[in-house]
Amino acid sequence: MRYKLLKNAVFIFMIALSMKMASSHGPLTEDCQHGMYKKLERTSSIPPTVKVDLNQSPKTRWNHIVTHKKKEIQAAIGQVVKLISDVSPKIVDLVNNYLPKIITKLPSPYDEELEGIAAAAEVPYGEILLFNIFYEIFTACTSIVATDKEGVVYHARNLDFGLFMGWDSKNKTWMLTEYLRPLVVNVEFVKDNQTLFKSVNFAGYVGVLTGIKQKAFTLTLNERFNVNGGYIGILEWILGIRSGSWTTFLTRDVLEKAENYDQAVEMLSHTEILAPVYYIVGGRRAYEGAIITRDRTSLADLLPINSTKAGWYVLQTNYDNWKNPPFFDDRRTSGLKCMNEVGHANIGFPALYDVLSTKPNLNLLTTYTTLMQVDMGVMETYDRVCPNPCFPW
To answer: What's the pTM value of the predicted model, to 2 decimals?
Structure first.
């Protein structure tokens, strides 16, 4: 009953905010954009590329990144703590007094990595852990896997982060989203002087939301809005029920251990996890791609490219593909329209950039856009900006 009341309150807030934005600034959607990739329109900057050496001690392997971004990490976490404190200072006390005790319960190497990051960033252990579990609760995204007529597979995503994490009514922006953009980095995970896989991370964040393993597979992770949400899995884990994997730790484990697309799909489909999610996976062979819809303990649905109406791509936002998205958050219709307008013969990085640059798939929550091609091992990332009028999510 309490969850239904909270859900209804959230929906009412989202509807009210979107109506207010529309009345203040005019239409928040637009025709499909074209020709934006050449000049990287609606991109504010290109994130740096850094290396994480898995042969180094987990406690120090992130230090060179964290020390460089220490002020930005402190600012982002400070914003999170402030928002929580505004709700109840007692929650902050719990974060600082209790969460540090459970960092040691995390699977290796994440326990030691977070301890090292907290020390390097000069942030309390509990707050760095809080920063690393936010995906289980607060994201919205668009992910696409598409094959061109030559059989080349492409994977692209918008990462939208910061929903309900402080609305700046003066600047019409989400506060946490603005703090997160400077933290975006491309990471090359190396072992024995060889690149094992690549990911896009926020500095201070050790899980993986977006990743590529060259000549093997690509993957992205989208939140699945569900009654049995991530907060339940987190609560169970804190209380000692630890049979499930953290969703973003699992994606990193898969990138490190899986050798091909089939192994990745198997691991992502059947490993018990803390939060319901969508794993979107692309392979090397023509039309090799799928949306994996996950409940916490089981596979809810598997939608491969060749089972879709278009037959050459899959597109996933944050709602089950067999249900209609809510009218106040319908990024799916816009994305499908623009993909079909591009057409099978014209798909590639420029076209995917255009699709993900079109409002509302590009919105005020969008922190970055990533484009990936598995055979070449290419991963391009862009920090994004959405010009007004722009949809809030």
So the answer is: 0.92
